[in-house]
Amino acid sequence: MGGTPSKNVNLTGEVAPSHFDLHRMVGRGTFGLVDWWSLGVCLFELLWNRLPSVGNTEEKLRDDIMTLPITIPSQSHGAVSNECTAAILGLLERDPKKRLGCRTGFSSIDEIQSHRWFSQFDWEKLQAKQLDPPFVPNPGGDNFEQFIACDFYSGDANLEKKKPEMRQLESDFTVFDFERTSRRSYYPLNESLPALS
């Protein structure tokens, strides 16, 4: 699972402006470094139900991200561990050379995995999808939207009706599904996609 310069991958695709890092905002490219910034933004939002930087417009948001300090909400002291706070602030470091996951000169999962907050985490079990989720929604509970789950699972029903390139995409991303599959690699088929006309 370790990162090397030759395996540097940008996982973000298109990200919301609130998840941009400084390099992307000033047009310098991302080099995969925005992935760790975006992870920090997501963790911040999951824990504190708000973004670390807030702006009414994209320009104001950009200014806030580039200039305002990241502050941890005061009500979280004691509720969130120092290790967690340090990891999030490390991911939200403005200087990519000092950002957690980027200090080696390239994007590296090894640095993330060895951080105090993640060090006891079983990364092999995560990759093998053998970990139990910390929360499983109760189908009979108020927080369960049954029609969403039905729509999600019915997605494969019409797989044969999809265009070949869409079937290939469905197959390629099976390895990333939340359910454990027998596939262990992203490239099991090594088939080329048909040319789009």
UniProtKB/TrEMBL annotation:
The superkingdom of the source organism is: Eukaryota
- What is this protein called in UniProt? Kinase-like domain-containing protein
| Keywords, in A-Z order | ATP-binding, Kinase, Nucleotide-binding, Serine/threonine-protein kinase, Transferase
One Pfam family from the record: Pkinase
What GO molecular function terms would the record report?
ATP binding; protein serine/threonine kinase activity
Q: Where is the Protein kinase domain?
A: 1-118
Q: Which PROSITE patterns match?
A: AGC_KINASE_CTER, PROTEIN_KINASE_DOM
